[in-house]
Structures are given as C-alpha cells and as structure tokens.
Design goal:
single chain; about 200 residues; mainly alpha; 7 helices; elongated
C-alpha cells in the first residue's frame, strides 16, 4: 500500500479549516449567549401567547401553555445561571406571560356566555384580535395601545354591570372586568420589559 502524506495533510487541513469556519459562522449567527437565550425565551412566550388568543376551548390550551412555559423557563434559567440580571429578566417575563395567559382565558371564557351586552362582546372580541396581531409583531407602542384598550373595556364592563339587574350578565361581566383589567396591567409590564426596565418591576 502506498501512503500519500501530502494528500493526507491537505485533506486534514481542509477538515480543520471547515470545522473552524463552521464554528465561527455558528457563533456569529446563532450565538448561545445569555442575552440571546433571554431574547429567544421572550419571543417564544409571545408566539405561543398569540396562539392562545385563538385557542378554543381555552382551558386545555392554557394548561399546555403553562406546562411549556415552566419547562422552557427552567431550561433558560439553567443557561443563564451565571447572569443574575438576565435570569431576573427571564423570570419577570415568564411571570408576566403566565398572568397574561390566565387573563386572556378569563376574557375568552366569558365569550361563551350569551347574556353579555353586544357592545361589550364586540369590544372584547376586537381587543383579543388586535392582541393576537400585537403578539406576533410586538412593539412598545403596540403594547401601550392594547393596555389602554383593555383598561377602557374594563371601565365599560364595570359601568354596564352596575346598571344591570341580571345576575347571569353581572357574573359574565365580572369575568370581563377582571380579565381585561389584569391584561391591561400585564401589557404595561410587558411594555416596560421591552423598554429594558424590568428591574423596576417587583416580583
């Protein structure tokens, strides 16, 4: 058997260069840094929360969202354990998303009740539709707008409940009031997180 040392060295060098290029490209385009893990975690929260706004029925979807959130949060916190600030931001984002998911399902749950006043029903459906679009393409301005709309819905539902004499309608409106008020608060928290002010949000 004849050994070609030059060909062997050339092929070995080519393999080493290929590995080096792959490592550099991977580190450039898919950096596994704590900041990248935090951004990816937040993006996944918003994408799955957007799916939740269209889920029907909402109960099973909420339980699946909660389970996935806790699993992803645990994995992300393990990656950023050496960065306390990033870990705090991930935990704040996770708690805000969990509260928002519960508020969305509370708000959607009252959609099944036929006794809700039509204007409230229309306003609530419009808020959920706009929220789904906002979660797909988030921005500070959009979160502020959706938070304002949620607070307006809560005020309208409260005024309607005060003037109603029907127990079923009052109970349905209570779900709208609590869900929209909680959602408005959570959206303001999400707005602060996008602005990088999560340290100002108590856990």
């Amino acid at each position: 058997m004849t050994y070609d040392a030059v060909a062997f060295l050339n092929s070995s060098l080519a393999v080493l260069v290929g590995i080096a290029v792959a490592v550099v490209l991977f580190a450039t385009f898919f950096p596994e840094t704590p900041a990248y893990a935090d951004r990816r975690f937040r993006r996944q929260l918003l994408v799955h929360l957007s799916h939740l706004t269209g889920a029907c029925p909402c109960g099973p979807a909420l339980r699946g969202y909660q389970r996935a959130l806790f699993e992803q949060l645990g994995a992300t916190l393990a990656r950023v354990r050496d960065e306390p600030k990033v870990a705090h931001e991930c935990l704040t984002s996770g708690l805000t998303a969990l509260s928002a998911a519960q508020a969305i399902c509370r708000l959607k749950g009252s959609l099944d009740v036929a006794v809700v006043a039509p204007p409230i029903d229309v306003e609530r459906s419009r808020l959920l539709a706009r929220l789904s679009q906002t979660l797909r393409n988030p921005s500070v301005w959009k979160f502020g707008r959706r938070a304002a709309e949620a607070r307006v819905l809560a005020r309208h539902a409260l005024a309607t409940a005060r003037g109603s004499a029907k127990q079923e309608e009052i109970e349905a409106l209570n779900g709208v009031i609590v869900g929209s008020a909680t959602l408005g608060s959570d959206l303001l928290r999400a707005r602060m997180i996008l602005q990088g002010k999560s340290n100002a949000i108590p856990i």
